[in-house]
């Protein structure tokens, strides 16, 4: 079999302490999974069923890279997140078995064109242009479960130019990692290489060209992103 043009390379993210890369199949994102962030977005933080959106696999950006200020936005935001890397696929996964499907964890930054997202939300339209644009998923090195266990508490913090903007705790997740995996797997069959961005604490806000954004999670280190000039 041949292709009409060469397939694009497999998207991947770094692995902590290894030259190997973690191949990325899909990126799922949990919306409004911290109560304080739900409130700052004008929504009720009650524990209703979680909802998901996605980013393309090739939106991933390694820590240390520069991300151009994206086009068609005047309100470009950061969102610090814990990332779950799936190593064993499955469907209808129980909460009790969910963590056995995790290969590791990473730090992420869910970059967002907030004005486009809110315009779409208010009109009942998909969030793709606000969330799923080029280079919108900064993902740090994945730490294997064998090295870091399963983080369910600890600081998650984001700074812009050294000033703290987000300061939460993983224990504040409305839906835990096992619950998220189980719920998602009852709708979509998970596969090795899937990443799940688990939501962001309160304090989201704008980034400008020249800013340096650092996200840290207790036990996972930190990642850094510089914002470059506006992309035309």
UniProtKB/TrEMBL annotation:
<dbReference type="Pfam" id="PF01557">
    <property type="entry name" value="FAA_hydrolase"/>
</dbReference>
<feature type="domain" description="Fumarylacetoacetase-like C-terminal">
    <location>
        <begin position="27"/>
        <end position="227"/>
    </location>
</feature>
<dbReference type="InterPro" id="IPR036663">
    <property type="entry name" value="Fumarylacetoacetase_C_sf"/>
</dbReference>
<dbReference type="GO" id="GO:0016787">
    <property type="term" value="F:hydrolase activity"/>
</dbReference>
<protein>
    <submittedName>
        <fullName>Fumarylacetoacetate hydrolase family protein</fullName>
    </submittedName>
</protein>
<dbReference type="InterPro" id="IPR011234">
    <property type="entry name" value="Fumarylacetoacetase-like_C"/>
</dbReference>
<keyword id="KW-0479">Metal-binding</keyword>
<keyword id="KW-0378">Hydrolase</keyword>
